[in-house]
Amino acid sequence: MLTRLLVRRFKLFDEIDIELGQRVLFVGPNNSGKTSALQALALWELGVKRWVERRGLQAPEKRPGVTLNRKDLTSVPVAVANYLWRDLRTRAAKHNGTQNLLIEVLVEGEDAHGRWACGMEFDYANEESFYCRPMRDSAGSRMPIPEGARQTRVAYLPPMSGLATSELRLELGAIQVRIGEGRTAEVLRNLCYQVYEQRPERWQAIGDAMRRLFLIELEPPLYLPERGELELYYRTPQKTRLEISLSGRGQQQVLLLLAYMEANPGAVILIDEPDAHLEILRQREIYNLLAEFTETTHSQILCASHSEVLLNEAVDRDLVIAFLGRPHRIDDRGQQVLKSLRDIPFVDYYQAAQTGWVLYLEGATDLAILRAFARKLEHPVAQRLERAFVKYVGNQPVEAQRHFHGLREAVPHLRGFALFDRLQRSLPADEHLPMRMWRRCEIENYLCTPETLLAFAEMEARRETGADAATTDLFTQRRIEELRDLMQECIAEVGAALATLGKPDPFSPDLKVSDEFLTPLFGKFYSRLGKSNRLQKSDFHLLADYVPLSAIDPEVREVLDAIADVASSAERL
Length: 573
Known about the structure:
4 domains, 6-stranded mixed sheet, 40% helix, 573 residues, alpha/beta, Rossmann fold, 6-stranded antiparallel sheet, globular
């Protein structure tokens, strides 16, 4: 996974230093540099690949450099090579001559072998070409190309402009070349065929997702050996059988993203405007779907967008980089969004009219946990939560009321439901907006049981050994026991620290477990393993998969029932 991107003198950037994570959203107005940041990463990957092809992993000190042609930069199209340089300046005057100004792109990452860093610099040659070589380190030597950088696969996926009506069957290398050239519309069927042939169970997952989003039934890709072509058909809700080229751009875009992620697990995917061609109601769904597939494919996605819907969804759970002035991380998370929504935007009125109901929650993590519990319990509200119109209001009932009654001025039949953490005050009475607070301190308390944490430790052991849930060899069993013991030790240590501070028991309903227990617990657990913390606060919803059904508090089902009642009554209006 890539963890940092440093860029100097590229396009409109003098210097930017961006933190990266598994899911990153670049937000900002037009011409703020979101796409340029993605292109800088694509340029770095091209430089690494060309260098390894022609020079190997080590950099010679004398006359290093490989030549790149501007036409090789399919993801960064420029008519003249110096268009890549900030202010078009490739040279700087000095008292004794001139100095070349270099574009520098430094990327840091981590993998199973540890952390690594790899920097590439680009030196202008002429209008058609420029040189590429590794940057110098702090000691003045050329940086070697680490194995982690060499193995990194980066794909830049711009919005689709149109799908080819026919498609020849291609080998994997030819598919990757076309994607590298930005010709994604020529390989959609090939990507689907690769997934269907090599990972049929994941093709089923793609089909399920497309059915849920677009109400279509995907058929398996067909290979026609007599013509060497591939065909892909789907059935509409009316059971009409159509070729995929007849589908909408949004449907094709989503299928491309899912198929690429499944065909290239572990890749770094750069997505420019993932909400392109999608109506407002589906933008939230698509982002959540991409987040789900990054987990199953162990991929990393970097998205550039100025969609308010995606910002609202990502700000409380993923890494959000604001391209306002100097690109920077939004650190105070939900509050940044809430401040920007003091006035109700038009998009909220539109969604209220389309859905007929609105759900108010503290933040996106609450929605993720509710969805996870609904799936775990196979509750009928699970599907409605996937398309819910959700507003995040913190633990501010008055803010929910203000927003809800403002919407009702335009949508009188609007229904709503507000859910909060346990508050120190009573909820205001509102005949139109039902409100409820959890009996325990917060929603994360319903995830926090000893059985859940030990089951998570077992999963971590299986991930290390590569064993699935049905396989338990002696080595895996020993590692499971070690990690379960480690988890119990960490629980005991954090619990003892809480007791020293006069705090409640870790599994008490009165403890704010997200901040006071789970966060330090997983920090300690992964620190003992010598790994980066893989379960931050925004990822606690993943624990729902490890909560035994018998340990799920009946209150969770009561809340899901209440949400289902509101949603179903709105559909009858």
